[in-house]
From TrEMBL:
PANTHER family: PECTIN LYASE-RELATED, PLASMIN AND FIBRONECTIN-BINDING PROTEIN A
Listed SMART domains: PbH1
Superkingdom of origin: Bacteria
GO biological process: carbohydrate metabolic process
Protein name as catalogued: Glycosyl hydrolase family 28
Length: 255
């Protein structure tokens, strides 16, 4: 609905966007972007609330996302073309927002081939809306054709309820039979923190890390967090190194 291409010093403030056919606010190759106090209502698929792509110094604050797809999805180009352009999304702060839609409240990927780094997701709420339950609170997704690096993703002080899949989901096996073009260039995903999560009601697992044998997820730290009403209490950790849980309980039991 709104695409900003190769722009600088952007303010999108106080608008209401309803029933777009695809992504709602999409800054591409932009810098110094502020998105403040907007409301997005969308239904269906491919109708993300906000998709910063290959953009730097982005501040998203005070927004409400009631979306049929991701609330915020950070992207940086896809496969060969994303690596050719080679511009990362970086230095992004998301705070004081509410999420009532499907899929991820904050998603990174799956189009992340130019790289995503230095993302701060804080002081936000995630809950069931009028139409959807959220699938994930934090969702990082990529696959072996994407290449690129996702690193330094930091989430803190997040409150969530009624999560329909995994609260924290990191997968390097996203849609391997679907999206993807070109040679295999394994992505790198590392340095992810989640601190101060309070999540009540998770249909699957609190934390799932799903790496590749050829490319392990590295250095995920979960701390000072409480997950209750979780169907499968044991976290699912596969092909991940350096994972730590500090002062974390799931269904009342320390991890």
């Amino acid at each position: 609905m709104i695409t900003l291409y190769e722009c600088r010093n952007i303010l999108v403030e106080g608008v209401q966007l309803r029933n777009s056919a695809m992504w709602n606010v999409h800054p591409v190759l932009c810098s110094n972007v502020t998105i403040r106090d907007i409301f997005v209502h969308s239904r269906g698929g491919m109708v993300d609330g906000c998709d910063p792509e290959a953009s730097q110094y982005v501040h998203i604050t005070g927004c409400r996302f009631d979306c049929g797809d991701d609330g915020i999805a950070i992207k940086a180009g896809r496969d060969i073309d994303g690596r050719r352009v080679g511009v990362a999304s970086e230095n992004i702060v998301i705070e004081n927002c509410s999420f009532e839609g499907r899929w991820g409240a904050l998603t990174v990927g799956s189009e992340m081939s130019g790289g995503v780094r230095n993302v701060f997701f804080q002081d936000c709420t995630v809950k069931k809306g009028s139409s959807y339950k959220p699938f994930h609170v934090l969702y990082i997704k990529t696959n072996k054709r994407r290449g690129g690096t996702v690193e330094n993703i930091h989430a803190r002080r997040i409150k969530a309820t009624d999560v329909d899949r995994e609260a924290i989901m990191v997968t390097l096996n996203y849609s391997l039979t679907g999206p993807g073009y070109g040679p295999i260039v394994n992505p790198k995903v590392q340095n992810i923190t989640a601190d101060g999560f309070t999540v009540n009601g998770v249909k699957k697992t609190a934390v799932t890390l799903d790496g590749l044998a050829e490319s392990h997820i590295r250095n995920v730290a979960i701390s000072n967090s409480t997950f209750t009403g979780v169907t499968t209490a044991k976290p699912s950790i596969k092909n991940a190194d350096g994972t730590t849980f500090t002062n974390v309980t799931i269904n009342g039991k320390k991890v």
